[in-house]
Amino acid sequence: MAVTFMGVIAAGFTGYKVFFESGKMAQGDVLPNSPNDDYKNRVCILLIGADQRPEQKKFSTDSIILASVDSETKRTSLLSIPRDSRVALSKNGYVKINEIVALTDLSTLQRTVEELTGVEIAGYVQTNFQGFKDIIDSLGGITVNVEKDMYYETGDEEDGVINLHKGEQRLDGAKALQYARFRHDALADISRTARQQIVLKAVAKEMFQLSTIPKLPVLVPKVMGMVNTNLSSLDIFRLAKVAAGFQSSNVVSQTLPGSFLDLDGVSYWKIDPIEVKKVVENLFQGKTTDKVIDQEKVDLLKPVTPTPSKPLPKVPGNSQDPNGRKSPGYQVLQEDFTYNINFPNE
């Protein structure tokens, strides 16, 4: 979603170029946010995905990504913040970061991420599952190399089953959502954030295909209508100027490092506030952190307990083998985990 939005406004910049060159906006306009001197050439927005129904005002967030573009290098940085990250929230003590919108609102989530990362954020862009699917379908789908067979019953009325087979394939919106949501392996939400990064990069690649250009007049307003944002029209115009030189190959991504923490039966992703700011600084320079999680504290071969309403079918490589076999699908190659997920061959 992050790269989709940046790609759309970059593509839309061509259509808005007359507006800028006509003098309606002064030359030398500042970026929407005014970051500290270290990040003065950078604009940041918060991308939020949620399983939100149209009538819902309060909801939990499914994905939180800090997206940042350097106006000089045109490098895009994506920082995935695991939804179970334990953060302080005034009057509520410590909570999971994905609970903040349900307890307060989207603006409070934005301020919390600003405090956590030490960067000022221009605004947020939020979409729900349906919006995500519609955006992917508007592009004609994306190409993803699914690293293993995946099956899980989510229990949702809509999008209730995740059912994917291993291999490189073309995914429509519904299938892309399944891939981005899957987290039923040993690293749970941490592996899901890496899959979301894969999807975003696939979207970016698709967005800048020559075949996409004829679709832009319809695609740009369509995508803008699928998101909820506190960015003003002027902010978006300014962002378009920054994103105009965007290249899908110039994207670096990182999952926020931490460790699993269990407090009174509640599972959290424990993060170090000081370390977070170091990670952000390095990421903005194009460098990722070598270790996302302390490998010694995680049993990567431990199967996740199945929770669907009925027994799962036997799917080769399924991370929830009904017979309890230790499938090779559990073994994540940690050295590449900050950027991608790699599973050994069957």
Provide mean pLDDT, rounded. 73
CATH superfamily: LCP protein
For the termini, the CA-CA separation is: 31 Å
**Morphology call:** globular
CATH architecture: 3-Layer(aba) Sandwich
What's the total helix number? 9
Tell me the helix content: 25-40%
Strand content: 15-25%
Secondary-structure-based class equals alpha+beta
Number of strands: 14
Number of domains: 1
Low-confidence stretches: 10-35, 294-346
The whole-angstrom Rg is 20 Å
CATH class: Alpha Beta
Order of strands in the sheet with most strands: 11-6-1-2-3-12
Series of secondary-structure elements, N-terminal to C-terminal: HEEEEEHHEHEEEEHHHEHEEEH
CATH topology: Aminopeptidase
Largest sheet: 6 strands, mixed
Explain the overall architecture.
By secondary structure, the protein is α+β, with helices and mostly antiparallel strands. It has one domain (2-336): Aminopeptidase. 31% of the residues lie in helices and 21% in strands. It contains 9 helices and 14 strands. The chain has helices at 2-21, 100-103, 106-117, 129-138, 173-181, 188-207, 216-224, 233-243, 273-284, and strands at 42-50, 61-70, 76-80, 86-89, 93-96, 123-128, 142-146, 150-153, 161-164, 167-171, 228-229, 251-255, 259-263, 266-270. The chain has a 6-stranded mixed β-sheet with strand order 11-6-1-2-3-12, sandwiched between helices. A hairpin with a 3-residue loop joins strand 4 and strand 5. Helix 1 packs across helix 7 (216-224) and helix 4 (129-138) crosses helix 5. The longest helix is centred in the N-terminal third of the chain and has 20 residues, at 2-21. It is globular and about 55 Å long. The protein starts with a helix and ends in a 62-residue tail after the last helix.
